[in-house]
Amino acid sequence: MSCQTTQELIHPYVDGELDLARSLEVEQHMQECQVCASAYRNQTALRSAFKDSSLYHSAPEKLEKRIRSSLRREAKSEAGRRSFGWRWLPAGAALAFVLLMAFVIWRPVPGIRPSGDELLAQEIVSNHVRSLQLESHRADVISSDQHTVKPWFDGKLDFAPPVKDFSSQGFPLIGGRLEYLNNRAVAALVYQRQKHYINLYIWPAEQSNAAGEVATKRQGYNLLHWTSSGMNYWAISDLNGVELHEFARLVQEAQ
Ligand SMILES: [Zn+2]
Question: Do 100 and 60 meet the contact criterion of CB atoms below 8 Å apart?
Answer without folding.
Answer: no
